[in-house]
Every structure is written in structure tokens, then in C-alpha cells.
């Protein structure tokens, strides 16, 4: 099937198999490898992207379902070589260790801050519940989101 979508502000028209997942379209076809495959069961959140303004786990979305959609991935956050405030805040606050969950965590936090620009610590923790980090205790991730909220 042929689909058309916009990813990080760039339009694409691609042929996909009806069963292809959005995460595989992004990684394998469009070569946007920042979106990670962690579990294939929607448990970890490593594959989170923004689709039409909503955070979605791209391992649960068929590419054909994204036809006509506007997708934002971790690669689309930085502008003109400058990191997005969320990316900088994760760096500043050591909100990552191995980094595998980080793109999904940042995209979920991005959506959270779009919906709630000034979240409490409890709201941040609740907003990130669908993302698993196996390396950190989440404290620095929460601090990073708090810093980004102040800067944004």
C-alpha cells in the first residue's frame, strides 16, 4: 500500500506492507533510528513518537494507520543544530545512563509538557508511567523534565 505522511516536517510517500509497524517504517525505511524497539508489546515506551499531537507507542501502530499523519520523532526536536530544552535538560541532569529508553522518555515528556506546561513532580511521574528505564531510579529523569518545564 502507498501511504503519505509527514515526519519531522518532511513529507514522505512510501510503499509499505499492510502489516508493517510504524516503528519499522521509521527505523528501517526512513532511517530514523532514534526511535527504539524495546519490547514489541507496548510495555516499555522506547518507541514513543508524537503522532498528530499525541504520544503513541509506534510498535502498536501500523504504518498504514499513520497515512496522512504528522509524526515527530526524537530527531525532529533539535533545530538548527541546537538541542531542544528537553534534550539539554536530560543531559544537564544525567537523566540517562545507557540511553536506550531516552528517546521515548523525552518524546513522552514532550507531550506531557505540551498538555501541562507546569507539571508537579507527581504529574511528571504519572505522565511517564508508560515508559520503563531499567538503568536509573527515575529521579534524574523527573528533575530533567522539571528543568525543561521551567526553560520552555
How many structural units, i.e. domains? 2
Number of helices, where a helix is a run of at least 4 consecutive DSSP H or I residues: 5
**Poorly predicted regions:** none
CATH superfamily of the largest domain, please?
A: Beta-grasp domain
Mind telling me which CATH architecture of the largest domain this is? Roll
Q: Major sheet: size, sense and barrel closure?
A: 5 strands, mixed
Which class do the helix and strand fractions yield? alpha+beta
CATH fold descriptor of the largest domain: Ubiquitin-like (UB roll)
From the N-terminal CA to the C-terminal CA, the straight-line distance is: 40 Å
- Label the overall shape: globular
Helix content: 25-40%
How many β-strand stretches? 5
- What order do the helices and strands follow? EEHEEEHHHH
Cross-sheet strand order for the largest sheet: 2-1-5-3-4
**Rg calc:** 15 Å
Beta-strand proportion: 15-25%
- How would you state the average pLDDT, rounded? 95
CATH class of the largest domain: Alpha Beta
Amino acid at each position: 500500500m502507498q501511504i503519505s505522511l509527514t515526519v519531522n516536517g518532511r513529507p514522505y510517500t512510501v510503499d509499505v506492507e499492510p502489516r508493517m509497524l510504524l516503528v519499522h517504517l521509521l527505523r528501517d525505511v526512513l532511517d530514523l533510528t532514534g526511535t527504539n524497539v524495546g519490547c514489541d508489546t507496548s510495555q516499555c515506551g522506547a518507541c514513543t513518537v508524537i503522532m498528530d499531537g499525541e504520544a503513541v507507542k509506534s510498535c502498536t501502530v501500523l504504518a498504514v494507520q499513520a497515512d496522512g499523519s504528522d509524526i515527530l520523532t526524537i530527531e525532529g526536536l533539535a533545530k538548527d543544530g541546537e538541542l531542544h530544552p528537553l534534550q539539554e535538560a536530560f543531559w544537564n541532569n544525567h537523566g540517562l545512563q545507557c540511553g536506550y529508553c531516552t528517546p521515548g522518555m523525552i518524546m513522552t515528556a514532550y507531550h506531557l509538557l505540551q498538555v501541562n506546561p507546569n507539571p508537579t513532580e507527581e504529574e511528571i511521574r504519572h505522565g511517564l508511567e508508560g515508559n520503563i528505564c531499567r538503568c536509573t531510579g527515575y529521579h534524574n529523569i523527573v528533575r530533567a523534565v522539571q528543568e525543561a518545564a521551567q526553560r520552555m
